[in-house]
Amino acid sequence: MEIWINPACSKCRSAIGLLDAEGAGYTVRRYLEDVPDEADIRTVLARLGLEPWDITRTREPEAEELGLNTWPRDTTARDRWITALAHHPRLIQRPIITADDGTAVVGRTEEAVREALARSRR
């Protein structure tokens, strides 16, 4: 498993605490320092089964500056959203946990983190 985190995020710290309590093996990616490129974002979106706007923090100041709330949420704008996430990683929802079965979850709840754990233990 890999978990994309911002150490300042309480949801990220909670997810790591639960993974540690469960004795899970994982690697940490501090995605503000080790910024995912467009290919990484496409891969994680495929694993999540989501679109880029689904994992975008649209209330962040950077999102407002970019006018993300006015961007179309369709296939014609998909690449534009992915480029924005690659250039502005603070906009990526967190934490994202990639499970060993090839799927991923946005681990903002204990249930989601446990789901990633279960998928990795199969």
Automatic annotation (TrEMBL):
Q: Which InterPro entries match?
A: Arsenate_reductase-like, Thioredoxin-like_sf
SUPFAM superfamilies referenced in this protein's UniProt entry, alphabetically: Thioredoxin-like
Q: Which family does it belong to?
A: Belongs to the ArsC family.
Q: What is this protein called?
A: Arsenate reductase
Show the taxonomic lineage.
Bacteria, Bacillati, Actinomycetota, Actinomycetes, Kitasatosporales
